[in-house]
Amino acid sequence: KAKGTEFVYDDRDVLLYNLGLGAKRPELRWVFEGSEDFEVLPTFGVIPPFSAEVPYSFDEILPSFSPMMLLHGEQYLEIRKFPIPTSAKLIAYPCLVEVVDKGNAAVVVTGSTTKDASTGEDLFYNESTIFIRGSGGFGGPSKGTNRGPATTAHKAPARSPDKVVEEKTTEEQAALYRLSGDRNPLHIDPEFSKVGGFKVPILHGLCFFGISGKHIYATYGPFKNIKVRFAGTVLPGQTLRTEMWREGNRVVFQTKVVETGKLCIVAAAAELVAGGKQKL
Ligand code: HDC
């Protein structure tokens, strides 16, 4: 039987998470626990399994592993139950999905189901793809398996986007976001990030994923799943531009760094909860 890791959270964690995704002072439902529609932003589902104990170590499954060379490659999140509680005791059950050999790089996919500890019901399912530069060439399979929505590469339509939201991150965005659980020094320590090839510590993938998710939620309402590929890095302080196309019940999207014009999220989509806008 898979070993689970408990994750207990309350309104303080919710406030910190929402602020980490750039929630603003007037957005009371995200920054004030006394607000009658207080809620956590939907991508919070990636947080409970983040620090869960995984049944493997990178050193075991890869011949050459360096934490400085690790980047977040893709993320898939499924929200299996609404509303998302603003405090709860959850249990996350991670497992190794696959290890892919890209020649230069290794790709490691972890899956995890998060359950409500008191009811045993599923709340979230995640798949996280980690891209480790320089760790490939060990003779593993060069392609991953097809796992439906978790692996679909969505294509942005040729027409101009239906909706666009722009938001400037702050210089302190990563410093704040790390308090939601990812204390990887890559996002704060210039000595560490330099070894990985970045003069300035880069923003967490899950932070700009969450900001784009917030843009989709604010524009189209709640979604039951969301999938992204991290195609480029973002520096704290840069401006994100989320470009969205509504395609039936799905919002296909991509995110650009305005200052450079480069894409940081591609092949992405969120599947809306039937009925459109409603409270989470
Ligand atoms: O796309 C490049 C890049 O730099 N992406 C941005 C990465 C990033 O900024 N991530 C977020 C910040 S890092 C972070 O947040 C870490 C965090 O603290 C810890 C995460 C832990 C989460 C754990 C939860 C449990 C890069 C470098 C990723 C790839 O670029 P290239 O090397 O130029 O790759 P390319 O030549 O285009 O393709 C080679 C093969 O790899 C596949 N691929 C490309 N991008 C990928 C990817 N696979 C997965 N994810 C990606 N993002 C390509 O498809 C190609 O394979 P194939 O030839 O078979 O098509």
Task: Walk me through this protein's architecture.
The structure is a single chain. By secondary structure, the chain is of the alpha+beta class. It has one domain: Roll (Thiol Ester Dehydrase, Chain A). The chain contains 6 helices and 10 strands, in the order E-H-H-H-E-E-E-E-E-H-H-H-E-E-E-E. A 10-stranded antiparallel beta sheet has the order 1-3-4-5-2-7-10-9-8-6. Strand 3 and strand 4 form a beta hairpin. The mean pLDDT is 95. Bound molecules: 3R-hydroxydecanoyl-coenzyme A (HDC). The site of 3R-hydroxydecanoyl-coenzyme A has 26 residues, from strand 2, strand 4, strand 5 and strand 7.
Key words describing this protein structure:
single chain; about 280 residues; alpha+beta; Thiol Ester Dehydrase, Chain A; 10-stranded antiparallel β-sheet; about 15% helix; globular; binds 3R-hydroxydecanoyl-coenzyme A
Q: In terms of topology, how is this protein built?
A:
Blueprint: E1 5-9, H1 11-20, H2 28-31, H3 58-61, E2 70-79, E3 88-101, E4 106-116, E5 122-132, E6 163-168, H4 173-177, H5 190-195, H6 205-220, E7 223-230, E8 239-247, E9 250-257, E10 262-272
Antiparallel strand pairs: 1-3, 2-5, 2-7, 3-4, 4-5, 6-8, 7-10, 8-9, 9-10
The structure holds 3R-hydroxydecanoyl-coenzyme A (HDC).
How many structural domains are formed by the residues?
Answer: 1
How would the global form be characterised?
globular
The CATH topology corresponds to Thiol Ester Dehydrase, Chain A
By DSSP, the count of extended strands is 10
The second-level CATH architecture is Roll
Largest sheet features:
10 strands, antiparallel
- Average pLDDT: 95
Distance linking N and C termini = 32 Å
Give the number of helices.
Answer: 6
CATH class: Alpha Beta
Radius of gyration (CA) equals: 18 Å
Which residues form runs of ≥5 with pLDDT under 50?
A: none
**Helical percent range?**
10-25%
Structural class: alpha+beta
Helix and strand run: EHHHEEEEEHHHEEEE
Instruction: Name the CATH homologous superfamily.
Output: Hotdog Thioesterase
